[in-house]
Amino acid sequence: SKAFLEDISHVEVLLRNFIDVRLSADTGIRRWWESPSYRLGGFPRNVARAEKRLRRARLDATPDQIVASLSLDNWRFLLTPRLEAT
Question: Where are the domains of the chain?
């Protein structure tokens, strides 16, 4: 069971990083979540919370740190039918 959870964790990181790279390329900006096209659901609020947590921990809120600090649950806002037309 521990090995299975580790595998899920690896898949989560791969998926999160793939989405990040793809959306950065699509928007042409590193902080793609600032694009109006991707300000969906609770995602902007969750990004703001991640930035706040990073600052509180005295870490730089770089795009990579922000992406890494968001759980897989946050990414569901980007995997909606609304984005299929974009």
Answer: 2-85
